[in-house]
Amino acid sequence: RMEGQGSYTLPTGTEYRGALRDGMFDGEGELLFPNGGRYRAVWHRGVPTQGKYTFADGLEYKDKKWHYCDGYDRRFYTEICSGLKPAGISQFTNLDPPKKIPEGCYDCGDGFYNPETRVIVDYKLRFLRNADDDEHEWIIRTCRKAWDETIEHKPKP
């Protein structure tokens, strides 16, 4: 079994780096997600006992008094850091510019969803999972879809 300091890459592309004991995460270690996020934690027999998640853009998640993108302040983190864009140039995601969604698909946060095949792929178009009925309905109801993308107005020369 894995023992000592090391790294382990899961089939999803998520990588663990840190202490291992008896084949499990045990001690200080971090999960590095393909989207650039990271979760640093103290682990005990494969279970995190305390930890902190940091998004790819540097925003740290707080489980108490979390005010990011709440009902009072709906700005994305990039807007908080860099300011709001002028009227008519809305920002639809925290990424600016947002990822281009393949035709007929939805951006579901960790990748693209094709409702025809019910398959979710990551942003590099690698298979992540099949959506069950609940996830399918949630994505169709709430996520940004390719045909919602706005096209910039270009004045005639």
TrEMBL record:
GO terms for cellular component: motile cilium. Transmembrane segments: none annotated. Pfam families: MORN. The keyword Repeat applies. The keyword Repeat applies. SUPFAM superfamilies: Histone H3 K4-specific methyltransferase SET7/9 N-terminal domain (SSF82185). Signal peptide: none annotated. Keywords: Cell projection, Cilium, Flagellum, Repeat. Gene3D superfamilies: Histone H3 K4-specific methyltransferase SET7/9 N-terminal domain. It is found in: Cell projection, Cilium, Flagellum. Its main location: other. InterPro entries: MORN (IPR003409), Morn5 (IPR042814). This is MORN repeat-containing protein 5. It comes from Balaeniceps rex (Shoebill).
